[in-house]
Amino acid sequence: MADRGARALSLPEDWPAHPDPILALNRMGTFDWDLDTGLFHMDAQAHEVFDLLPEEYDGRPESLAVRVPPPEAARLDAVVARAIKDGSENYGAYFRIRRRDGTRRWTRTQGYIRRDATGRPRRVVGIVRDATEELADSSARSLRAAQDEAFRQQAGVVQAVSAALAHARTVRDVIDVLKDTHGIRRLGAASLVMGLVEAGRIRLVAEAPVGSFVPADKVNRIDEPYPMSEVVRTLQPRFIESPEEFAEGYPILWPHLTDLHITSAAYLPLIAQARPIGAMGLLYDDRRGFSAEERAVLVALGSSIAQSLQRAMLYEQEKDLAQSLQQAMLPRTIPSVRGADIAVRYRAATAGGALGRDIGGDWYDLIPLPGGRVGAVIGDVQGHDTHAAAVMGQLRIVLRAYAAEGHTPATVMARASVFLHELDTDRFATCLYAEADLATGVVQVVRAGHIDPLIRDGDGSCRRVPVQGGLPLGLSAEFGRLEYSVTTLELGPGHTLLLCTDGLVERPGADLDDGMRGLVRLVGEGPDDVRDLADRLIRLAEERGGDDDVALLLLRRRVPEAPRAGGRLQQHVAPGCPEALAQARHMIRAAVRAWGVRDRSDEIELAADELITNALLHTEGSAIVTLRALDDGDHRLRIEVEDSSSALPRRRDAGEDGVCGRGLLLVDRLADSWGVEARGSGKAVWCEFRMPAHM
C-alpha cells in the first residue's frame, strides 16, 4: 500500500528537529521513527492528533495502543512491514484512533523510509493528520473501499491463524497458538476462553490473558445458562453486541465481567463431523456490533479451529494407543539376576508427521536360563508404526521361547529368522542375542544384522567388540543362509556389557562408525552404576531428539562370591571353521578356571579337543559342545560332544607310525570316565572329571 504521493515530502536529514512550518499550519503532525533504537519521536502537533499530552507518551510505539485499537494497529503494522520488505520508499494508510472521550477519529499517515548504503532501513520519517472530515465528505464508494479493506484484513486473520494451526499436532499445540499474545492480537479480542466437551460437561482448557475466564468454575454443565453452554446445545454461534444485551441475556455471568469492560462478544461452537467438541469465546472491549462479513469470518475461524482440534484429538488417541501397544509388547518387568546388575531403557521416537510415528519396533529382553545363565536380547523391527510394534511383540516371545528351551544361541537366532519369514509380514528385523554364564564370565554372542555390543572394563575404559554377523531375521531364511556364527567373549568381574539399537548412535547424514566411537567415549566417561549410566545415555538421546526409537540394555557382572556348581555352557562348532573350534576351547578354558579346577585345566581342554575333533573328522557334520558342572553328591565336570551320526566311536591301535586312532585312548587315560549316549538321530560322546569338593 505504498503511497507514491509521499515523494512530495522534501525532508532534511535532521528532520523533524526543524519541521516545516507549513506542515504545522495545515495541522499535520510529524514523527521520526528510529528503527535501530525503536523510539518513535513526535512533535507537538502529532501529540494533538493522537490526543496525547507530552508527559503521557514515553516514545515507544507500543504506548500508542491507548489510542490505536489492536485491529487497527495490526493492519497498520502490516502496511509498514510490507513496504519495508518489498523495498518501497514510502507508504500511506488510513487508520482509526480512539480519543480520551471515547469518540473515534480517522487518521491519515504517510511515511518515508530511509535506508543506509546496504539498503537496510534505518529510519522512518513522516506525517500524521486528522482525516475524519476528509472521509466523511468522500463518497460512499471510498467508505465502502475502507470497509472492504477491513474485511480483507479480517479474512487474513483467519488465514494466518489457520496457517499457524496447520503445524499443531496436539490439543496443547492448538491452545498455545490461540493463547499466544500475537494470536489474540490477530483476532482483535481483549480476551479468549475455550472449553472442550467431556462427558456432558464443558471443561475449561484455555484462557488468555490468564485469569480472564468467568465464571471461575473450570467445569460447567451443558444445560447451565452460560453462552458457551448455549452454543454447544444449539450448535449456533452467539454474537453479543452490547453490554446491555450481555447483562439481559446472561444475568448470572454479567456481574463477573464488569471489571473487564467488555463491550461485545462472539461465542462460537466448535463442531467436527456434526458433533460439538467444544466452544470458544472472544470478548472485546473496543467495539459494538458485528457486520455480516465479520460474523462470516468468525464462523469460518471457528470451523478452522474445530478441524485442528479434531485432528489433534485423533493424533493423541492414536499416540496413546500406540504407546500402550508398545508398552504391552515390551517386558513388564526385568527379572533380577544373581551375579549381575541390570538396567534397561526405552525411548520412543519423536517424529513429526503421520499418526503412529511415535512408536517403533525396538525391544529388549532378559531371559533367565538354567544353570545360572542369562540371555540378553536387543532388536529392531523395520518400520515405525503399530505393525512394527506388533511384529516386535511376536518376535520377542518366540526368541524367549527358543532360548528357554535350551537351544544354542545360533539355533535360537536361526529359528527366529524362520519364524519371521513365515509370518504374514514384509518386515525384517536386526537382532543381537548374548547368552552369559555369570559364574565364568563366558558370553556367547550371535548377531543378525545388528550393531556390535560394547564392553566397559572395571577401570572405566570402553571398547567396541566386533562380532561376526549374519543376515537380519527374516532375510536369512528368505535367502537360505541360516548359519549364524557364534562369537565367544569373556566378561570379567566388574565389566559391563552394553547392547543398544541404532537410534542411540545414528544421526542423519553422519557415519555409523563415528556414532559408535562417540558412544564408546560417552560410556567410558559415564558413571559406574549401570542405572545411572543408562539414565545418562537415554537423557542424551532425548536431548538430541530424532525420528528413531531407542532400546538399551546394560548388564554388569558382579565379582563372584565363590565358585558354584550347576553351570552349563554350550557351543556350536561348524565343520571347516577354525574360529568356532577356537571359541569352544576358549569357553572351556574360562569355565574350568572359574569353576576352580585350574590344576586339571590342561587335561580337560585336551580331552574336549579330542572329542570335538573326532566328531568333525568322522561325521562330516557340525558338533554341539556342552560343558556342565554337576553337583549330585559326587562333584564332577562333564563334557558332551553331540553330532548327527549314529556310528559309534571305537578305540583303535594307531601303531608306531600312525597319526590317527589315539583320540579315545587319550580321553580314556585323561578322564575319570567316558561313554556314548544315543541322541535321536545322532549320538553324544561324553567324559567326566572329578572336581574339588568345594564345588
Rg from alpha-carbon coordinates: 40 Å
Mean pLDDT: 81
Helical/strand content category: alpha+beta
Low-confidence stretches: 1-11, 352-356
Q: How would you name the oligomeric state of the polypeptide chains in this document? A: single chain
Strand content: 25-35%
**First-to-last CA distance:** 95 Å
Choose one word for the global shape: elongated
Number of strands: 27
Major sheet strand order: 8-7-6-11-10-9
Count helical runs: 18
Helix content percent band: 25-40%
Major sheet attributes: 6 strands, antiparallel
What does this structure look like?
The protein has 695 residues and is of the alpha+beta class. The protein is 34% helix and 27% strand. It contains 18 helices and 27 strands. The strands form five sheets. It has a six-stranded antiparallel sheet, sandwiched between helices. Strands 13, 14, 15, 16, 19 and 20 form a six-stranded mixed sheet that branches. A hairpin with a 5-residue loop joins strand 17 (454-456) and strand 18 (462-464). The N and C termini lie far apart (95 Å). Mean pLDDT is 81; it is low at 1-11 and 352-356.
